[in-house]
Amino acid sequence: KVNNVLKEMERSLELACGSELWNPRTVFESNPDFTFCFQYTLLIWAPCLFLWCAAPLWIFMLSKPSSNKIKISYLFISKLFATTCLIFIELINLYYAFDESNKTVFYITPIILISTYILVIFILHLERKSGRCNSSILFIYWLIMTLASSITLRSKLIFHFGQKSHEEIEKRLYKLDEHDIYLFYVTYIFICLNTILSTFSERVFYKIVLSKNSPEQNSSLLSRLTFWWINPLISTGYKRDLVRDDLFEIDDKELSEASIQKLEKIWNPLANDYIKKVRALEDNKTFIINESCVRNDPAEKINLEVSLQ
Q1: Which of 5, 11, 129, 137 is the most buried (most CB within 10 A)?
Q2: Where are the domains of the chain?
Q3: pLDDT, tens digit, for every residue of 31-80?
């Protein structure tokens, strides 16, 4: 069944492209390359699918209130500018698709990209409002887009300047003009620019300024992955013994007090329900014991009736 589904999907993509999705002859040769249909569908759709699948959980995490805010900075404006330029480029591609092409894939892919870039802008806005100084999900998305676009860039460079084997056939099939090649070059530049910008972190303005805030809160994703932010403290410890003033203040959300509050919010209602059940069970056992005593001792029955009255 799985193979049938995959074959049906492959036939649908080939129908949308008007050519084959996978060609082993072009992949396993001295100058390997993927087909245009593969590059214009799976290589582009896969990163977009990742972002759309991860976005709901990420947006839910960003919806939690935070006292830290991020002001509009040059880094934020640069990210918006680069992403907005990509939207305009895809609108141009969509215009040429309506004007020149009759292949369905030339309409679907730009629409998917435009929708994904709008989602990126929405996530950037939520991250700024929630005080998130760096975005791991957007960094991963732009990194995958850069890797996928690099494969397409190689194919277009070969087509534009180098050898032309099956690329010539695809040019006649898809009518790739000079504007398509140059638009992709500009697209690749902005994708790489977004990848570079996503490695930097925003400056967080704390509502409560501590004597020595931890640099981890303002560090970039790569700095966190490599623990580069702690190098100054390690260097200080190498030169001399560390003292209390050398250590960073613990962030509010990492304090035990914050963890206890979260635990008590869940623990207290459950504990109260358990106590009520135990008391009800004890009262029931007491009633059963009294009832058994009444059956065995008639005098106890008279005393019980008097007490009930």
Answers
A1: 137
A2: 2-197, 255-308
A3: 777 777 788 888 898 999 999 999 999 888 888 766 666 778 888 899 99
Q: Which residues contact 107 (CB under 8 A, 6 or more apart)?
A: 94, 97, 98
Dihedral in degrees, nearest 10, Cα atoms 201, 203, 209, 214: 20
Buried b (16+ CB within 10 A) or exposed e, 164-179: eebbeebeeebebeee
Q: How far is CA 137 from each of CA 23, 28, 207, 233, rounded to the nearest angstrom?
A: 33, 34, 26, 28
Q: Is the pLDDT of residue 207 over 90?
A: no
CA distance 60 to 45: 24
Secondary structure, 3-state, the chain: CHHHHHHHHHHHHHHHHCCCCCCHHHHCCCCCCCCHHHHHCHHHHHHHHHHHHHHHHHHHHHCCCCCCECCCCHHHHHHHHHHHHHHHHHHHHHHHHHHHCCCCHHHHHHHHHHHHHHHHHHHHHHHHHHCCCCCHHHHHHHHHHHHHHHHHHHHHHHHHHCCCCHHHHHHHHHCCCHHHHHHHHHHHHHHHHHHHHCCCCCCCECCCCCCCECHHHHCCHHHHHHCHHHHHHHHHHHHCCCCHHHCCECCHHHCHHHHHHHHHHHHHHHHHHHHHHHHHHHHHHHHHHHHHHHHHCHHHHHHHHHHHC
Task: Please give the Cα distance from 158 to 43 (Å, whole number).
Answer: 18
Tokens of 112: 């998917």
Fill in the amino acid letter for 261. Answer: Q
Question: What is the rounded distance in angstroms from the CA atom of residue 181 to the CA atom of residue 185?
Answer: 6
Q: CA separation (Å) from 297 to 228, 286, 289?
A: 81, 16, 12
Instruction: Report whether 62 contacts 127 (CB < 8 A).
Output: yes
